[in-house]
């Protein structure tokens, strides 16, 4: 090949590589917009221990998109209905029984742990760690 032909071939290769890179970059951007990163999935059975281990309970959570439902059972055998939301790793929900209610606000870590604050309807509040069973 002559020198001129080699220069044209090299230039074309550079142009093709740049076009390929641009296509990959655009595909990645479009894919991340159309298919955003999966948020936490908290569906399943969870447990908590409170008050230095003297009180414990269980949660059964169901998640559909950013909507959270389920049940909570406490150390006294009381059952509560859960409703709430989850967005990325931020979670908030209420647990309501016929006579008591709790509010929870926290963060999900690696789909295995929920670190949150709880607020009881009678004024009690504190930190709570909830882990998967």
Relevant terms:
single chain, alpha+beta, Lipocalin, elongated
Uncertain regions: pLDDT < 50 for 5+ in a row? 14-18
- Estimate percent helicity: 10-25%
**Highest-level CATH class of the largest domain:** Mainly Beta
Shape: elongated
What is the total domain count? Answer: 2
Walk across the major sheet and give the strand order.
Answer: 1-2-3-4-5-6-7-8
DSSP summary, beta strand count: 8
Gyration radius from CA atoms, angstroms:
26 Å
Structural class: alpha+beta
Beta-strand content bin: over 45%
The overall pLDDT, averaged over residues, is: 83
Largest sheet: 8 strands, antiparallel, barrel
What would you give as the CATH superfamily of the largest domain? Avidin-like
| H and E order | HEEEEEEEE
Give the termini separation: 70 Å
Architecture per CATH nomenclature, i.e. the level-2 architecture of the largest domain: Beta Barrel
Number of helices: 1
CATH topology of the largest domain: Lipocalin
């Amino acid at each position: 090949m002559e020198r001129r032909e080699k220069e044209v071939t090299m230039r074309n290769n550079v142009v093709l590589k740049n076009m390929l890179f641009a296509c990959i970059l655009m595909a990645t951007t479009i894919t991340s917009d159309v298919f955003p990163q999966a948020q936490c999935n908290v569906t399943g059975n969870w447990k908590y221990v409170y008050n230095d281990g003297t009180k414990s309970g269980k949660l059964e959570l169901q998640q559909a998109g950013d909507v959270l439902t389920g049940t909570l059972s406490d150390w006294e055998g009381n059952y509560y209905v859960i409703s709430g939301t989850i967005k990325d790793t931020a979670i908030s929900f209420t647990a309501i029984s016929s006579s008591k209610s709790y509010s929870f606000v926290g963060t999900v870590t690696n789909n295995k742990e929920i670190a949150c604050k709880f607020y009881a309807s009678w004024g009690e509040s504190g930190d709570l760690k909830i882990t998967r069973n």
